[in-house]
Design brief:
This protein has 378 residues and is of the alpha/beta class. The chain contains 15 helices and 13 strands.
């Protein structure tokens, strides 16, 4: 039985990296592989993940993934420098101990393939196992460029690991321009499948399922939708927000006063929520390859999105499965949304195109590509 080991920095994080690895890992297990996750530390006290056959191993259960980085030391020059520097040295020493334990775990597990999701995990891979590593860059390349240390680390390991895997062809080509070699790309998979398609014309509901985090700009999304709902033409529409996080004061007031916009908390039944909806929105500053858009497509839900990075036109067929709007062009974003809400024939056409397009992200299709990649990795 072939063994696969997923490497993550956090063991109980419910972000996009985990959901991708969970979907892949569970499909690998169905196909006869033995698959486990190895995480350096945890990050969210109290969160238990027990809805998966994918075993999660955590190297350090005592410390959380909240460390002082070298960049934090540089930022502290002239202010709290010595305190920050001291904590940096302590954190670095502890992290080196974690890497050493990771190395021992990998040697004892003896994986045939290693899928690494964060560049920090590469420091814990024994030299003799580096050729078995497929490193997956989960963010956009433009976002990666902002992390100069991350770029430096990846270039250091670039010719030592089995493959560099990007989330889109566009991202891979951009990486090649910046000197990365040994590249491939595989799209993110959807984590569920359904033969059903949302009744987008009669549902009359905008939905977003996301982390409520500054980079996602959900407060901006709420503001734009609220502006549109001021028009009585859209009084029979509603907007539901699912996820965890906090809103700014303006959004809190809108949520309190509006009879059409609702915060629904966390959902464990994504497909049911989407099947009762009509359209989703994306206001992120950047995305690697958005899982929420893929999930929407699976239920026949089109999207209106700001341009979130180099992969956007591979994930959104502009004018067919949704609309792509120039980053920050709020008025155009609202006009596109008004157009779709007003033109139910267009909405239904986009729903049909989205459902058709979703087949490209089916978990079985994506894992077939992973198995093809395994054949060329040592």
């Amino acid at each position: 039985m072939k063994k696969i080991l997923f490497l993550q920095i956090k063991g109980n994080s419910l972000g996009g990296v985990w959901f991708v690895n969970k979907a892949l890992g569970e499909e690998f297990i169905k196909r006869g592989y033995h698959a486990e996750v190895l995480a350096i530390r945890n990050n969210h006290p109290g969160i238990e993940i027990n809805d998966t056959p994918l075993k999660i191993n955590v190297i350090n259960n005592d410390d959380l993934w909240e460390i002082v980085h070298r960049r934090d030391v540089l930022k502290s020059l002239g202010k709290n420098f010595w305190k920050t520097f001291k904590q940096y040295r302590i954190d670095k020493e502890k992290l080196n101990e974690d890497y050493s334990k990771m190395s021992e775990f990998i040697k004892s597990y003896r994986p045939d393939y290693i899928i690494a999701s964060h560049y920090q995990t590469l420091f814990g891979v024994p030299l003799e196992y580096l050729s078995k590593v497929i490193f997956v860059q989960h963010s956009s390349f433009k976002y990666l460029l902002d992390d100069k240390y991350g770029v430096k680390v990846l270039k250091k390991f670039n010719d030592k690991i089995g493959k560099m895997c990007w989330l889109s062809d566009s991202t891979m080509k951009l990486a090649e321009k910046f000197g990365f070699k040994n590249n491939t790309f595989i799209y993110n998979p959807n984590k569920f499948t359904t033969f059903k398609q949302a009744d987008v014309v009669n549902n009359k509901k905008i939905v977003v399922i996301t982390r409520i985090h500054p980079e996602k700009r959900i407060d901006l999304m709420i503001s734009m939708v609220n502006d549109i709902f001021m028009n009585s033409k859209f009084r029979d529409w509603k907007f539901e927000i699912y996820g965890t996080g906090s809103f700014n004061e303006k959004s809190q007031n809108i949520l309190k006063d509006s009879k059409q916009i609702f915060y629904k908390g966390v959902t464990n039944d994504v497909s049911s929520v989407l099947l009762s909806s009509s359209i989703t929105l994306n206001t992120s500053i950047y995305e690697g390859f958005s899982l929420s858009i893929i999930e929407g497509y699976t239920c026949g839900i089109p999207v209106i999105s700001f341009d979130f990075g180099e992969s956007v036109y591979e994930e959104i067929r502009d004018g067919k499965t949704g609309f792509v709007v120039k980053q920050g062009d709020i008025e155009t974003f609202k006009l596109k949304l008004i157009n779709v809400l007003s033109n139910l024939k267009l909405l239904k056409q986009m729903s049909d195109e989205s459902k058709k397009f979703s087949k490209e992200f089916n978990i079985k299709v994506i894992v077939d590509k992973w198995e093809d990649l395994f054949k060329i990795v040592n």
